[in-house]
Design a protein that fits this description.
The protein is mostly helical and 40 residues long. Helix content is 80%, strand content 0%. The longest helix is centred in the middle third of the chain and has 22 residues. The chain starts with a helix and ends in a 6-residue tail after the last helix.
Length: 40
């Protein structure tokens, strides 16, 4: 089972990096939006 997880992670490494970058950008946008003065 551990070897299956390792092979799955090694095969999808680029996808995982792209997903992590997308999640980080969403978190940054949320923090910026929460710190904007006033509202829309």
């Amino acid at each position: 089972m551990l070897t299956q997880i390792k092979t799955a992670l090694s095969r999808s490494q680029t996808t995982l990096l792209q997903d992590a970058a997308g999640a980080a950008s969403l978190a940054v946008m949320l923090m910026v939006a929460l710190h904007l003065p006033g509202g829309f």
